Amino acid sequence: MKLVKPVAISDNDILEVQVNDVDLVETTAEWDIGTTYEPDDRVIAEEDATIYVYQCVNPSGSTGDYPQSDDGTNWVIYGVKSRFRPFDNQLSPQLVGNSKIRYKLDFISSLKPAGYYNVIFLNVDADTVKCATRLISNNAVQTDRSIDISGSVDNRFAVFENVYIDETMYLQVTAEAAGSVVIRLGEIVIGIPVDLGDIETGSQTSIVDFSTKNVDEFGNVSIVERAYVDTSTFKFSFRTDQTRRISYELAQARATPACYHGGEGEEDKGLLVFGFWQDFRLTVNTNSSLGTLEVQGLV
C-alpha cells in the first residue's frame, strides 16, 4: 500500500517540452499594471515558479490589481500555462498533442532529494508511455522503460516503480502513439512512495457520479450526465510499531492531492486513485495492526 505525494515541478525544472500541437502556444498575454481588464479576460502571472492563468471576475473590471495577491474579488486562478498541465495536480483539462508528448525534467534539489521515485501517468490516452533517466553531462541512458497500454481495457494510467534519479540525471517522460493521431495526457505524478503497509483482501473500488436524475409529478424522468470520480476503500495491515509514522504521513497529505495505490501488481485491480483521503482508521493490535483508508479521486 503506497502513498505518493507529487513533487512540485516549476518552470526551472522543465528542460524541454516536445508537443506536436499548437496547445503550447499561449495567446494569453502577461498581466500589465496599466491595462484595464474586462470581466472574463485572462492573463498570465507567475507565482512560486509556476506560471498561472488568471481570469478576471470583477463585473466592473480590474486595473492595477495584482492577480497573485488578489483575494478573489478581481482575479481567480483559471488554470496553469499549458506546459504545466501534466503537473498541476488536476486530471483535467488534458494536454493535447499529435503522436508524441515528451518532457525532460531536472528537478532534484535540496527540497527534492535523490532517491527511488514512482512515476505515474494518469488520465492518459496513448499507445505507449515511457520513462527514462539520462545523464545531464552527456545524455547517456541510465534506465529506459516502457509500458504498452494500447490493448488495455482501461488505458488511463501506468505506473513506473523504483525509478532512481539523482542530481547527475534528468528524467524523460513520454506518451506516444503510432501515426498522426491525437493523444492526451492528464497528469504525471512524480514522488517518492511512502509505504503504508500490505494491502489486504476486502478492499473496494467504486465511483461517485455527479449526474442528476429527476422524476417529475407525472413520472417523466430527466437525466443530465455529468462527471464522475473514482473512489477506493483500502484495507491494509502494518506493524504496530509503525502506527505513529503512518498516522503522521496521512496527516501530512490531508490537504494535498496524492496518488494512493495498492502496490506493485495491484493497480490493475482498480486500487489506484489520485485525490484526497476522506477518512482513515488505524485499529491497533499487539504485533500486527489493521488500517482502513477511504480516498476520493479528482475529476
Outline the structure in words:
The protein has 299 residues and is mainly beta. It folds into three domains: 2-22 and 86-194, Jelly Rolls (Sandwich), CATH 2.60.120.260; 27-80, Ribbon (Seminal Fluid Protein  PDC-109 (Domain B)), CATH 2.10.10; 196-297, Elongation Factor Tu (Ef-tu), domain 3. It has one helix and 24 strands. The chain has one helix at residues 243-252, and strands spanning 2-4, 14-19, 36-37, 42-47, 50-56, 62-63, 75-80, 95-98, 100-105, 115-125, 128-135, 141-148, 157-165, 169-176, 182-191, 194-195, 198-199, 204-209, 212-215, 221-224, 228-239, 258-261, 272-283, 288-297. The strands form six sheets. Strands 1, 16, 17, 18, 21, 22, 23 and 24 form an eight-stranded antiparallel beta sheet that branches. Strand 23 (272-283) and strand 24 form a beta hairpin. The longest helix is centred in the C-terminal third of the chain and has 10 residues, at 243-252. The radius of gyration is 21 Å and the shape is globular. 30% of the residues are buried. The model is unreliable at 21-25 (pLDDT under 50).
